Each structure stands twice: as C-alpha cells, then as structure tokens.
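Structure ticket #2291
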Amino acid sequence: MISEVDGILVTAHELKAPLAVIRQLAFSLEELKPENEQIRSEMIQVSERAIKQVNDLAKVRRLEDGLFVMEPVSVRAVCNDASKELTRLYKSERKGLSVRYSNRSRLVTANRDLLYSVVYNFLLNAMHYSSDDTTAKLLVSDNKENVKIVVRDYGPALPTDVWRKLKDGYLEEPTSIAMRPGSSGLGLYIASEFSKYMHAKLGAVRHRDGTSIFVELPISKQASLFV
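Resolution: structure written out below.
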C-alpha cells in the first residue's frame, strides 16, 4: 500500500511538468500592458515557488538514502540568500522583513541545501501573516552550543495540536493548519523532515500577536570553511 507521503510525492511529480509549462508560457509573453505585466510576474513567481516545493518533496523521499552531506555551513550566508530571494515577493505584497544577526558562531553543522529550504519555508509562511503595518523578523543568535534561527510573524497563533507536535519533536506527516489558511502546512512538514535529518531541533513559540518558529543547529567545530 502506498503511504500518504509517497502519494503526495507521486502527485507532486505529476504537477511539476505543467508548472514548468506555465512558467515558460509566462516568460514568453511580451509587450504586455503595465497591468498585465504584474499578472505575468505573479505567474512566474507562483510557478517557481510551486516547483521549488515539488523539488523539496523529492528530497524528502531521498533523505533515507543519506545523499545529503553534513558539513560546516555559514548560517548567515544561508539566511541572506533565502531572505534576498523572497525580498521581491515581500515587496510586491507590501510586507516588511527585517534580518538581525547576533550570533558570534558563524558556522553550523548542516547541509546547505536543506537548511536553505528550512529558512525559505519559514519566511514564506511568515510573509502570509505580516500585514502592511507589521514586519516579519528573521533573528539568528547563539544558544549555548547551538545557533538558533527564529522567524517571527504577527498572524494567528499555531493550533495547539501543531504546536505540541513541534514541542515534542517533529511533524510526522503534512498537517493542515486551519487557523493559518495562507500558510503551508506542507512547507512546515518539509522543514521538519529536513531538520530531523540534520539532527537539528525544531520548535515554535505562540505569542498573543503571532508565532515564532525556530530551528537550532549545533555549532561547527571546524572554523576553516565559509560557505
């Protein structure tokens, strides 16, 4: 019997081809009126984000093969790249994003591609819950023998059951988040699977005015490699 996760992977692979076609068609449109150019840009962005999630799902299935090497990774470089990629989307949605680093330990033990996807998914979820008068926050700090990456938003709190699952460990399956209809329960599941593979701690804090989702990774003892 095919598992729920494998079923999602099959569906994701079936969707990848038409998503790529939509993206290419959007690129091929030229000489559009200004109002239609905005639609074209949104088509490209949405299709690219969907393709990225499909690729992440494929990586989830391949985790058991142990193909993702753990090595010293520059946590600031990963966070910079993820936040820069989403800057255009935040601006187009008239949302704010602030980034603050207070970590003295620059390297963590992780896989760069997996960590990038974790941070990217955190930021994408937070974007849905930052209104015009609030700003999502990406915070990186030292926490004993770990580096902690936190993404804070100002939307509805996570449901109690999801919060408890994160508090107790990881999400074992894609989870619908009814109170956060614009966020991706699938993205949070992907982040959970990648964090588990990297032996990183995943968690969430519920606030009266939003949620903080975080991941903690062990500080690398090798200070010679900067990614």
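Closing remark: The beta strands are 71-74, 96-101, 107-110, 135-143, 146-153, 201-207, 210-218.
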